[in-house]
Design brief:
Elements (H helix, E strand, L loop, with lengths): L1 H8 L1 H6 L23 E6 L16 H19 L2 E4 L9 H9 L4 E9 L9 E5 L5 H14 L4 E6 L3 H4 L5 E8 L3 H7 L2 H16 L10 H6 L9 E3 L12 H4 L19 H10 L11
Parallel strand pairs: 1-2, 1-3, 3-6, 4-5, 5-7
Antiparallel strand pairs: 4-6
Helix pairs in contact: 1-8, 3-8, 5-8
The structure holds zinc ion.
């Protein structure tokens, strides 16, 4: 039903978008026998409190959109039977180090950070999903496969980058950039509850089906399931930067300083975006790969 509502709401662009092969309707209560989730999912809504996210003069607040999607994702995952932990469940500031500590305090957990993107170039648009450790790639692949496949916006790919929250977590960790709030079309989508719900459901599906991600080491799993999710190729941004994501100067500065830098003690950052800002502020930059 939700999907139906969504389709109506966004009929024009959604239908016009090349969609992947049909997938089953969103299951809200039916959990396949062998996938009773024992995993804890730590959901991290980016930014919060004084940290609004995004770039200066951005009209739609990123922190608010992040929390909306995160709370919907919590509901989706809870319906699947997952235990969900939120790093924040209201408009409060939570330091990056705290977010990571929460994630790392659970064994057999996964960590999913929800963000929206921003760029000075207004036409920049699309969905991208970040990971850092190789153990996180299947999760990134699955989430990206569903979110990018289900969204009426371009697929900007899976990207590897050393955001603090991805680098410092010891469990599989992924950061989803759910579209550009600096793009008029995507900002409109982001403010619709149908679209927020759609994003949450696609992220949830990716989490649930991450074990179906194809890889060379899962040949027998492939034999056992008709469904597979392709392992996504990724853009390695640990050394390369997308010009769209190189924002205003004060935010993009980074350096080759050691990865110890200031991360754990940052007071002003709640995610990758603000990590960059705060590192600049302190004149003590994070590693080259922490921007955005
Ligand atoms: Zn952000």
């Amino acid at each position: 039903m939700r999907r139906f509502v969504f389709t109506l709401a966004l009929a024009g662009s959604f239908i016009a978008t090349a969609t992947p092969a049909p997938r089953p309707q969103t299951p809200t209560a039916v959990i396949p026998e062998n996938s009773q989730p024992s995993t804890v999912v730590v959901i991290d809504a980016g930014h919060g409190g004084f940290d609004r996210g995004g770039i200066p003069r951005q009209l739609v607040q990123e922190k608010t959109m992040n929390l909306d999607v995160a709370q919907r994702l919590k509901a989706v995952l809870t319906a699947y039977g997952y235990r969900v932990v939120m790093t924040r469940d209201s408009d409060v500031f939570v330091p990056l180090g705290t977010r990571v500590a929460i994630a790392n305090s659970y064994r057999d957990a996964i960590f999913v950070c929800i963000h929206f993107n921003a760029a000075p170039r207004r036409s920049a648009n699309g969905i991208e999903t970040y990971f850092y450790s190789s153990q996180s790639l299947p999760l990134a692949s699955a989430i990206h496969y569903y979110v990018a496949g289900g969204a009426p916006t371009p697929n900007r790919g899976v990207r590897r980058r050393g955001f603090y929250v991805l680098r410092k977590t010891t469990i599989p960790a992924v950061l989803v950039e759910c579209g550009f709030l600096t793009n008029a079309t995507e900002a409109n989508y982001a403010q619709s509850s149908a679209y927020q719900q759609k994003l949450a459901e696609e992220i949830g599906r990716g989490i649930r089906e991450r074990s179906l991600v194809a890889s060379t080491s899962t040949a027998n799993r492939l034999a056992a399931n008709n469904t597979t999710v392709p392992l996504q190729p990724f853009i390695d941004q640990t050394h390369y930067r997308d010009p769209d994501l190189v924002r205003s100067k004060h935010r993009k500065r980074s350096s080759k300083s050691s990865s110890k830098s200031t991360s754990a003690t940052r007071k002003h950052s709640s995610d990758s975006d603000s990590e960059k800002r705060s590192s600049t502020r302190k004149k003590k930059s994070a590693p080259a790969q922490t921007e955005n």
